[in-house]
Design goal:
alpha+beta, Rossmann fold, 9 strands, 16% helix, 38% strand, globular, disordered C terminus
């Protein structure tokens, strides 16, 4: 086991534990990556809460230490067994919440600092990343956005890209 953020694209073995959070919305696993203090945990809390308010199933998979492994051509994320169901709200403490043990990843969110300029219109190839030889949809968000704004952008991403992910808007472009 390692705590270093290592994702070996050539490997078919587990990449170890990385510093990240993971949630499930609908049937889609979402991995949230970023430096310490970027807001991964708050985004996980906001995303699960907002998704549930729209009527979708949503749970924490893990916070702080996530194992990402290739299995059957898909990526599976699991929280560390010693902290399952626990999530940190910085400055407020550790809280227990409902969780799933594992999820198939369908989206990777990278939280970037506000000094990094993000492209206005990313190229199609920039919307996917490879992890352990598996292509996964990706999205980069600025870490200085509030967690509710970030969560809304993620939920809009599902509607706009319709990448066989489980969240879809209705005919008028609204979430149920």
């Amino acid at each position: 086991m390692t705590d270093s953020p290592r994702l070996d694209p050539a490997s078919t073995r587990p990449a170890g534990y990385i510093h990240a959070s993971a949630v499930v919305v609908g049937e889609t696993g979402i991995l949230i990556r970023g430096v310490s203090g970027a807001g991964k945990s708050l985004l996980a809390l906001a995303l699960t809460s907002m998704a549930e308010s729209f009527g979708y199933f949503s749970r924490l998979v893990g916070d702080d230490r996530i194992c990402v492994a290739r299995s059957g051509g898909r990526l599976v994320a699991r929280g560390h067994p010693s902290i399952q169901g626990a999530i940190e709200w910085r400055g407020r403490g550790i809280f227990r919440t409902r969780f799933l043990e594992a999820v198939v990843l369908g989206l990777v969110i990278d939280l970037e600092s506000s000094d990094r300029k993000l492209p206005r219109c990313p190229e199609d190839g920039d919307l996917d990343i490879m992890i352990t030889g598996v292509s996964v949809a990706s999205m980069t968000l600025r870490s200085d956005l509030g967690p509710s704004d970030q969560a809304l952008r993620i939920l809009q991403h599902f509607r706009l890209h319709r990448r066989n992910l489980s969240l879809e808007a209705d005919a008028r472009g609204r979430f149920p």
